[in-house]
Specification:
The protein is α+β, with helices and mostly antiparallel strands. Strands 11-10-9-12 form a four-stranded mixed beta sheet. Strands 1-4-13 form a three-stranded antiparallel beta sheet, with no helix packed on it. A hairpin with a 3-residue loop joins strand 7 and strand 8. About 5% of the residues have low confidence.
């Protein structure tokens, strides 16, 4: 095993999960206890994931040919390795259909984030994307770590500010300062931050939270090990939500796959469309689905 991200201590504590102020799936508030953890300082980067692949010869889900049995009725030409890629529109569009800005891209995977003509040149320190849950879990096992549960992730993301709207407090832009890589401008066609670093940004480009953790909101969504539930009332039982996520599309993924909870929002979250760059925010995502805005970080028990 090669070196992976530095880990920081997160103390035990009591978390009031969720929020009553935003989306239905964040309700009702629920009291949970979290044990002390070590948490990756930032999401796993392309450079770190490359070391894992070199050491293990791991082949990600996006690099594998889909099984026709999982996609009944699919056209043969669509059953090729690939992943889901965000594509800005040329101008304003109605925001009622995510298929206007998401596309299935043959040949897209973690090494080629936008497809065969793209590469990781200059992106070693960007979060790895196009990783399905099993890819993230394999990396975590190789690193001697694991993926967090949803309560663990949310507790760590709060950074000690339990109940605050954002990981840094109540104001989105305190004193005008940008605190996370989120969409600034008119979604999905004009992003005022893109000229700085592209869509994803190098980890640690924005201030850390109170526990010293970077990119806990914005940049990329992050996998948890918690099966999706439609709200917090059932304590995360096995209830599943069939409604596609507005921010995490289910394109070209098996019809009957387990959905897990992802956290933190991404660079595509905009106030007018997806106000999910908050610790309490949550979304469902098929565990064998990969996209250009979903990554992960690991934890370790103390």
């Amino acid at each position: 095993m090669s070196a992976t991200a530095a880990m920081l201590p997160v103390p035990a504590g009591a978390l009031r999960m969720g929020s009553e102020d935003f989306y239905p799936e964040e309700r009702p508030l629920r009291e949970v206890s979290v044990e002390p953890l070590q948490v990756d300082e930032h999401p796993v980067t392309n450079a770190e994931f490359r070391r894992f692949v070199k050491d293990t010869n791991h082949v990600t889900v996006a690099e594998q040919e889909p099984d026709a049995a999982d996609f009944l009725g699919a056209r043969p030409e669509d059953l090729v390795p690939g992943s889901v890629v965000f594509t800005p529109t040329r101008g304003p569009v109605p925001l009622d259909d995510w298929r206007r800005w998401w596309r299935w891209q043959p040949g897209a995977h973690w090494r080629q984030p936008e497809g065969p003509d793209s590469s990781l040149h200059g992106r070693d320190l960007h979060p790895v994307v196009h990783v399905a849950h099993e890819d993230a879990a394999a990396y975590a096992a190789w690193a001697g770590k694991r993926l967090p549960s949803e309560p663990e992730w949310e507790w760590a993301a709060c950074g000690g500010l339990v109940g605050a709207r954002y990981a840094w407090g109540e104001e989105f832009l305190p004193r005008g300062k940008v605190m996370a890589n989120t969409w600034h401008g008119d979604f999905p066609w004009r992003n005022e931050l893109v000229h700085k670093h592209g869509l994803t940004s190098p980890v640690k480009s924005y201030p850390p939270n109170g526990y010293g953790l970077y990119d806990v909101t914005g940049n990329v969504w992050e996998w948890t090990n918690t099966r999706w539930s439609v709200d917090h009332a059932d304590g995360h039982a096995d209830a599943l939500d069939d409604k596609p996520s507005c921010c995490s599309p289910s394109i070209n993924v098996p019809d009957e796959q387990v959905e897990l909870t992802i956290k933190g929002g991404s660079h595509l979250c905009a106030p007018s469309y997806c106000h999910r760059y908050r610790p309490a925010a949550r979304q469902a995502h098929g565990m064998r689905s990969a996209t250009s805005h979903l990554g992960f970080r690991c934890v370790r028990d103390v």
